[in-house]
Amino acid sequence: MESRNQTSTSEFILLGLSEKPAQETLLFSLFLCMYLVTVVGNLLIILAISTDPQLHTPMYFFLANLSLVDFCLATDTVPKMLMNIQTRSKSISYACCLTQMYFFHFFGIMDSVLIAVMAYDRFVAICHPLHYATIMSPGLCGLLAGGPWVFSCFISFTHILLMARLVFCGSNELPHYFCDLTPLLRLSCTDATVNRVFVLVVAVMVIATPFLCILASYARIVMAVLKVPSADGRKKAFSTCSSHLSVVALFYGTTIGVYLCPSSVRSAVKEKASAVMYTAVTPMLNPFIYSLRNRDLKRALRKLVNRKIASSS
To answer: For residues 107 and 69, is the Cβ–Cβ distance under 8 A?
Structure first.
């Protein structure tokens, strides 16, 4: 322990998305706007669903949970990056780095599992409509929403315990804008084989497995919808899934590239670009994706905004 205290670094330098001052100013303005839109959009979704009794259904319950997780995921990474650009200080302490990494993986795992849960909800609604209320009972909904919180806590804490045993005695420059596992493991002076194996196992559990479950759910959904005799019925069924499929493509398209592709085809630039997609872009777009084509949610949002305007006037 004494040897580790003498050799292990006490802080890391987050190199960020760019080292050019002119580009950093543009990045600060861009990500500040994106973060504000993320906060407002996701909080509005949560408020609209919680205050409208007509939206107290399993689908909107899971959507409210997803909005909360998206808000927290963006808040874990973007404000720190904005502060580093504003203060021209890129350092982050070892303890803060592990804390940020814990919450990043906690909410990232939650995001992945919740998206899969929402696919299961759509599968039951379309393939078993007569039994939907019975299958998606309050008890099951609570388990499907609460279970991922416990699971994410356990996996994220295990990541931190494994990371805490490593020694970082060489370069402390992290080619990223937040503390993530993959680039951090490259800086370790000690053998990180156990960490890398655990990262791969977790990636299969929380990325590949939910993604395959989503594909299986939508395969069954497509088969069920094609049997609907009415063209309007088929169109309505597909429209209820289009928003969710957009989110699936955005989220899994980037996370699979970062955590499941071989390291030989990855680079720091590609990892940062992918990270921007699932930590900033996806949480910002989700409220728009889910609300623009959803009449009930748009109605609830209008009602919420009108109520706020009326109360302030």
So the answer is: yes
Question: Side chain identity at 271, as an amino acid letter?
Answer: E
For residues 279 and 273, give the distance between their C-alpha atoms in angstroms, rounded to a whole number: 10
Specify the pTM: 0.88
Taking the C-alpha atoms of residue 129 and residue 58, their distance in angstroms, rounded to an integer, is: 13
Helix, strand, coil % over all residues of the chain, rounded to 5: 80, 5, 15
Neighbouring-strand partners of residue 11: 93
**Cα–Cα distance measured from residue 195 to residue 68, given in angstroms and rounded to the nearest whole number:** 29
Is residue 246 within 8 A of residue 214, CB to CB? The reply is: no
- Calculate ∠ Cα 176-75-293, nearest 5°: 110
DSSP assignment string, 101-146? HHHHHHHHHHHHHHHHHHHHHHHHHHHSGGGHHHHS-HHHHHHHHH
Angle at 165 between CA 159 and CA 169, to 5 degrees: 115
Please answer whether residues 46 and 292 qualify as being in contact, where contact means their C-beta atoms are separated by less than 8 angstroms: no
Residues 217-265: tens digit of each pLDDT: 989 888 888 887 777 777 776 777 777 888 888 888 888 877 777 666 6
- For 37-96, write each residue's pLDDT tens digit: 999 999 999 999 998 888 899 999 999 999 999 999 999 999 999 998 888 888 999 999
287: nearest Cα among 35, 75, 40, 115: 40
Asked if 80 and 2 count as a contact pair (C-beta separation under 8 A), the reply is no
> Distance between CA atoms of 59 and 45, rounded to whole angstroms?
13
The rounded distance, in Å, linking the Cα atoms of 289 and 283 is 10
Cα first-last separation, the chain: 63
**Closest residue by Cα to residue 255 from 238, 273, 237:** 273
Cα(59)–Cα(136) distance, rounded to whole angstroms? 10
